Amino acid sequence: MSIKVIDSHTEGEPTRVIVEGAPDLGAGSLFRQAELLTSEFDHVRTAVVLEPRGSDVLVAAFLRPPETQSSDAGVIFVNNAGILGMCVHGMIGVVRTLQHLGRASTTPGETIRLDTPVGTVTATVEPDGVIAVENVASRRTNHRVPVQLDDRLVHADIAWGGNWFALIDDHGERIEFERRKELTELASKIRRVMNDAGLDGTGARGGPIDHVELFGPPVNGGDGQNFVLCPGGAYDRSPCGTGTSAKLACLAADGRLAEGATWIQESIIGSRFAGTWRAGEEPGTIIPTISGQAWITGESMLHLDPEDPYRFGIS
Q1: Is residue 285 part of a domain?
Q2: Which is nearest to 117 in space by CA: 3, 216, 25?
Q3: Binning pLDDT at 50, 70 and 90, where does residue 80 land?
Q4: Which of 48, 90, 121, 282 has a CA positioned 20 to 30 A from the CA of residue 77?
């Protein structure tokens, strides 16, 4: 079995797009196809994402036919823990990959519509290689929820930006790359305590907190810096597009960022996303747009040798 992939990174965070050799997931909704990928073909996900071919930080994208007639393609994102609802850094990587393949325009102003299991997003080509992704509707569901840890009390906003986030700024830690181990341990503890206590999201897509986002002051001329813990235990090298979407929902709800104004989010490694928002159709929701760049890093053919005991990854 062979799988052709194209690798890229978006502001430091890697994306692997499967362009040949993906399993047949049928013609149902992308939500149903994602369920089928998990129930019948999870070994393909683990083979592509996990060691020895991948790493805990890697996000992969399965390209699918569009679910809606007005869209250009469908995408299912996965990581080391399973299916991701949406992934903005990954979507920027997908669009850059489609440009690399000649399947998407590089002309500024051109747009591409892509379906995901949690909704349709639009990507617009901007000057200088920037790609702007108009994400799914985002919202804050809970404000300053107290979370009692063994050594401190923190307060979390719970917000949906394509995945569920706990956003915390009173954690008392310095957001520095050299302290990523300590930040990972703290964010993991916060997530565990919140989910054990049932402090999850609410509404139609309510579910457990899968990402934790710690905030601090900017260090490179932006508006804030974050550290984002992803579901499988890795930290996001980019500023996290769905996390920035969740942040914009909180800023909008607090009246701290006007509609159309720009928020510059810095990552733990110093890379940046620019975010803006407009009002959503449903009360209390916003439509965020996240802008950043991606670069192609490689093309390869993954071989799954039937004699290899680790052909489906090390888990």
Answers
A1: yes
A2: 25
A3: very high
A4: 282
CA atoms lying within 13 Å on the CB side of residue 182: 9
Beta carbons of 138 and 246 less than 8 angstroms apart: yes
- Cis ω for the linkage preceding 208 (within 30 of 0): no
Q: Does residue 154 register a pLDDT over 50? A: yes
Q: Specify if 133 maps to a domain.
A: no
Give the CATH number for residue 44.
Answer: 3.10.310.10
Instruction: Give the pLDDT of residue 295.
Output: 98
Strand partners, 224: 265
Span of 23-37, 85-99, 163-177, 190-204 with lowest mean pLDDT: 190-204
Q: Which two tokens stand for residue 144?
A: 């300053």
What are the two backbone dihedrals, phi and then psi, of residue 16, each rounded to the nearest 5 degrees?
-120, 115
Distance of alpha carbon 117 from alpha carbon 129, whole angstroms: 27
Say how far apart CA 190 and CA 167 lie, in whole Å: 10
243: confidence class by pLDDT, cuts 50, 70, 90 = very high
Average pLDDT score over residue span 251-277: 98
Q: Which domain holds residue 222?
A: 139-292
Catalytic residues: 87, 240
280 shares a domain with 144: yes
Give yes or no for residue 202 having a pLDDT over 60. no
Judge contact between 274 and 128, C-beta under 8 A: no
Average pLDDT, the chain: 94
pTM: 0.94
Does residue 132 sit within a domain? no
Domain count, the chain: 2
* Dihedral, 126, 274, 190, 315 alpha carbons, nearest 10: 20
User: 313: Cβ–Cβ under 8 A, 6 or more apart, which residues?
Assistant: 43, 46, 47, 48, 49, 50, 51, 52, 53, 54
Same domain, 121 and 152: no
Residue where the block lists tokens 């369920």: 35
Q: Does 89 fall in a domain?
A: yes
